[in-house]
Design a protein that fits this description.
The chain contains twelve helices and seven strands. It has 338 residues and is of the alpha/beta class. Strands 1-2-3-7-6 form a five-stranded parallel β-sheet, with helices on both faces. A two-stranded antiparallel sheet has the order 4-5. The protein starts with 8 loop residues before the first helix and ends in a 9-residue tail after the last helix. The mean pLDDT is 95. The structure holds thiamine diphosphate (TPP) and magnesium ion. Magnesium ion binds next to strand 4.
């Protein structure tokens, strides 16, 4: 986007491809996401991040599962809670951290910030903070794939609260009527902002909402990356073979509050602990140990190595200059006087 942004598209796409064939890299990527988001919270507390941030600790299996089951030529829409998906799809940690910090190294040259991550090279479409905005965008992308006879698939990832927004219903309806290659992935983390799902949503089993649109649907354990991967892969295959859209409900949980300093005191006692006992990273590490792909010492080495790599990434992001006023106007079409 800006001249000073390092050119890394091939590196991003390489990181995307790695996930498809290598389960150890999926584990590594989940660790990377957790570590980057922990750093984002620290950097926010130090006053280095403007605006707000929404992190997704606990939901890493959904992000990495979606990225592993799609191709870089497919497109994905995420939400304001999108750092995990951006990293999973291949954007490098210093580029995500740089964007969150408003630095030129960021994927939007530092002009978008935490809620507006995008990189067309890996298929991450522009992101909007408006709840539900990604759904019609994914449906439109799927319509363009169908109209141009491209075999791409569009995926929209959104939260449970989003299923009360008109765009969700309009999007699912048209996707079904037009038989579009689109996959809707709902991260049901039990809360929309500070409200438990049952206080805002009449139908708390989100998957049942697909029945109103005669759409294929699956419910998946969002803490189990293999289950997410298999479910998304089935839905992507269905979409690619022109057998229509799918709504996947991934049951998951965010370990942190809705945004920045929310301490999430509205959660009932014991709920967080119950979900921490099913941490997606620990579950997948245990599965890989059980089937002999790795041992527990390797897991700790991997975590340590990831932490060192994130130190380097954080250093690169902080060394990069902030985006400048001329950059802000570089893509503005109307004449400016400054
Ligand atoms: C159209 C619109 N309405 C309200 C908001 C304020 N808002 C931001 S996040 C959010 C909750 C969304 O919850 P959910 O879809 O479950 O996603 P989660 O944050 O849990 O990932 C709301 C109401 C908004 N950004 N856009
Ligand atoms: Mg939610």
């Amino acid at each position: 986007m800006t001249d000073s942004r390092p050119e890394r598209p091939n590196e991003h796409v390489r990181r995307r491809f790695e996930l498809r064939s290598n389960r150890l890299i999926r584990l590594e990527r989940m660790m990377e996401i957790r570590l980057v988001e922990d750093r984002i919270q620290d950097l926010f507390a130090q006053g280095l991040i403007s605006g707000t941030t929404h992190t997704s600790q606990g939901q890493e299996a959904v992000a990495v599962g979606v990225a592993s089951a799609t191709r870089p030529t497919d497109v994905v829409c995420c939400t304001y809670r999108g750092h995990g998906l951006a990293l999973a799809l291949g954007i490098r940690p210093e580029v995500v951290l740089g964007e969150v910090l408003g630095r030129q190294i960021g994927c939007m040259g530092g002009l978008g910030g935490s809620m507006h991550l995008s990189d067309p090279d890996v298929g991450l479409l522009p992101t909007f903070a408006i709840v539900g905005a990604g759904i019609p965008i994914a449906v439109g992308a799927a319509l363009s794939f169908a109209a141009t006879k491209n075999d791409g698939v569009a995926v929209s990832v959104f939260g449970d609260g989003t299923t009360n927004i008109g765009a969700f219903h309009e999007g699912l309806n048209l996707a079904k009527v037009w038989n579009l290659p689109v996959v809707f992935v709902c991260e049901n983390n039990l809360y929309g902002e500070y409200s438990p799902i049952a206080t805002t949503t009449a139908v708390t089993e989100i998957s049942t909402r697909a029945l109103a649109y005669d759409m294929a649907t699956e419910v998946v354990d969002g803490q189990d990356i293999d289950a997410v991967f298999e479910s998304v892969e089935r839905a992507v295959d269905r979409a690619r073979s022109k057998d229509g859209p799918t709504l996947i409900e991934a049951k998951t949980y965010r370990y942190v509050g809705h945004s920045r300093s929310d301490k999430a005191t509205y959660r009932p006692d014991g709920e967080l602990e119950e979900w921490l006992a099913r941490d997606p990273i620990e579950l997948f590490a245990a599965e890989l140990i059980r089937n002999g792909a790795i041992n527990s010492a390797n897991v700790e080495q991997m975590r340590h190595r990831q932490s060192e790599l994130i130190d380097v990434a954080q250093g690169l992001a902080l060394e990069s200059p902030p985006s400048s006023i001329p950059q802000m106007f570089a893509h503005v079409l109307a004449p400016t006087h400054h």
